[in-house]
TrEMBL record:
Residues 41-50 have a biased composition (Basic residues). This is Ribosome biogenesis protein SLX9. Belongs to the SLX9 family. It is found in: Nucleus, Nucleolus. Its main location: nucleus. It comes from the Eukaryota. Keywords: Nucleus. The keyword Nucleotide-binding does not apply.
Length: 161
């Protein structure tokens, strides 16, 4: 036997529209709803709460990223100085390799040429660290390098005839 579809009734709502007049008193509207005011449902309220929540999280993430960028710039003000750290690390690696090579190598095989190369490497690393710590270089690295080149190059080398 086929099923018969029942009509749904709304027993939990007494009437479709609430009364606008109080029966005991004069006809004064109890519920005034304007046409411009949209009916807010539970779903729209939930959606609005979700959007506000997402907006708060996004603003917090943006503030955190901005603080990280500011902190990164504060430690190393120029990109050149930030790039020098990789050079500094590579110099330290070379020095570690040289020291490891000296330790494993027997004194008979160490030549004067290798000793001179190792000595110059150590001196260059010391000089490089001094340059990195110099206040003029930390303020404006490019201008400092330019000034150093103009001081060290001879006038005949800088202006070829």
């Amino acid at each position: 036997m086929p099923r018969i579809a029942r009509e749904r009734t709304k027993h939990h709502q007494p009437s479709a529209r609430p009364s606008t007049h109080d029966i005991a008193s004069a006809p004064v509207p109890l519920l005034e709803r304007t046409a411009a005011e949209p009916k807010t449902t539970k779903r729209t309220k939930r959606h609005e709460r979700h959007l506000k929540w997402v907006e708060r999280i996004d603003s917090a993430k943006k503030a955190q990223r901005a603080a990280q960028r500011r902190e990164g710039r504060a430690t190393n003000k120029s990109a050149l100085v930030r790039g020098m750290h990789t050079m500094d690390e590579s110099l330290r690696e070379i020095q570690a390799q040289v020291l490891a090579h000296e330790i494993t190598e027997t004194p008979k095989t160490t030549t004067t040429k290798m000793k001179a190369r190792n000595k110059s490497t150590v001196e260059e690393e010391k000089r490089f660290n001094q340059v990195l710590l110099h206040p003029a270089f930390q303020q404006n690295p490019l201008a400092t390098i330019r000034q150093h080149l103009t001081n060290t190059l001879k006038p005949s080398e800088s202006n070829p005839k």
